[in-house]
Amino acid sequence: MRIFTLACLEFKKIKRSRILLLLLAASVILWIPSILHVHLNFQMQAEGISPEHNFFIQGFLGMSWFMFPASMVVATVLLNQTERANRGILKMLALPVRPAAFCLSKFAVLLVLAAAQIILMTGAYYSSAVICGITQHYRFLLPPLFAAKQAALLFLSSIPMLAFFWMLSVCIQTPIFSIGLGLSSIVPSVLVINTTWWFADPVCYPFFIMTAAYGKLAANLTTAQAELFPWIPAAILLTILFLFVSCIRFGQAERRSFL
């Protein structure tokens, strides 16, 4: 089977799961504080940023720092537990398909789920902007091309982070420990982005990119900008490393018990 065919099968498995509901709930909850405290955006004009840009970037900052990574940690573990719950992974591994193909197909599904959540969050932004525009009598809507660009940057920068979370879920059999370790790796990103070695921590990539975008939008604020070197080579190497370890470890414990 090809990875695409396997990925299609994985989508059928999670069709009735709670993963999509989780992503939708996180997307909606994210913008509630922005709606409640929309008036604060007008106070940020002193920093050289317009209220509509501040409304957008503050929401995406909150998303990139915690809400999006935390959702992906939980979604990753749930995705990896679809077969382990009923020992169905033993039947899956008995098929004439390499375990690495199953592993990569599941990671491909995780990428699609990440993209879906970013799309949901972007859609929730526009709904929130309309609501705030009505209550504040001010236009908070930004051009779709601008929002799409930031959303694309967020997704691309999150790929190494997703590979890291996927490796944790594959290597750590106990879901609670996998979730705990994944969530604990999110918090230090606030400190890591202020160091010269930020590119060594893939979990901070999305937050760093959004922080850099904030610095570009706010004329009176200075934030560190992402340099393609050594960031891109490091991101590629880390992603390959995480996926390599995941492919080796995927189903290893079950294969040993099967034998």
Q: What can you tell me about this protein's structure?
A:
- The model has no long low-confidence stretch (mean pLDDT 86).
- Helix content is 74%, strand content 0%.
- The protein is mainly α and 259 residues long.
- Helix 6 crosses helix 10.
Query: What distance separates the N and C termini?
Result: 24 Å
Listing every helix as H and every strand as E from the N terminus to the C terminus, the arrangement reads HHHHHHHHHHH
Q: Which class best fits the helix and strand makeup?
A: mainly alpha
The best one-word shape is globular
Share in helix: over 70%
Radius of gyration: 20 Å
Mean pLDDT over the residues: 86
> What portion of the residues fall into strands of 2 or more residues?
under 5%
Write a brief structural summary:
This protein has eleven helices and no strands. By secondary structure, the protein is an all-alpha fold.
Key features?
single chain; 259 residues; mainly alpha
Topology:
Blueprint: H1 3-13, H2 19-36, H3 51-84, H4 88-93, H5 99-136, H6 144-171, H7 175-184, H8 189-192, H9 205-217, H10 228-249, H11 252-258
Helix pairs in contact: 1-5, 2-3, 2-5, 3-5, 3-6, 3-7, 3-9, 5-6, 5-10, 6-7, 6-9, 6-10
